[in-house]
Amino acid sequence: MEGTQTEGLDDLPPSAKLVFKVLEYNGPLTQKGIVQESMLSARTVRYALERLEEIGVVDEDVYFADARQNLYKLTEPAQEFTGDECDASCTAD
Questions:
Q1: Is 71 left (phi over 0), alpha (psi -120 to 50) or beta?
Q2: Which of 93, 86, 62, 78 minimizes the C-alpha distance to 24?
Q3: What are phi and psi of 76, to 5 degrees?
Q4: Hey, is 90 helix, strand or coil?
Q5: By the number of CB atoms within 10 A of the CB, which of 26, 42, 61, 72 ranks highest?
Q6: What stretch of H or E contains 21?
Q7: pTM across the whole model
Q8: Which Pfam families match (predicted)?
């Protein structure tokens, strides 16, 4: 299952990879926040979010500050792609 998601992320268009990185660095954001951070058009961000949701690396939640908007965040399995899995063996040098 992990291989399928990794391949799915590798096969995404550059805009979707950028949106993934924006969410990785900034944490949960609204679509408007992703547009501001990535400097992509709203339409491109919508398409990228759809693609990321299809492969299961982004979740959509209610944004309580403004219920008209949604809050997007990386899913738990998506954390595998961020490179945070480095443990004590990485600092053994």
A1: beta
A2: 78
A3: -60, -45
A4: helix
A5: 72
A6: helix 14-26
A7: 0.75
A8: HTH_24
Which residue do the tokens 């339409």 mark?
43
User: Can you say whether the dihedral through the CA atoms of 11, 22, 18, 44 is positive or negative?
Assistant: positive
How many residues belong to the chain?
Answer: 93
pLDDT of residue 78: 61
Separation of alpha carbons 16 and 22, rounded Å: 10
pLDDT per residue over 40-88, tens digit each? 999 999 999 999 999 999 999 998 998 899 999 998 766 566 555 544 4
Q: How far apart are CA 72 and CA 90, in angstroms?
A: 31
Contacts of residue 92, defined as CB under 8 A and 6 or more positions apart, other chains included, come to none
Give 9's pLDDT tier (boundaries 50, 70, 90).
confident
Bridge partner list, 58: 74
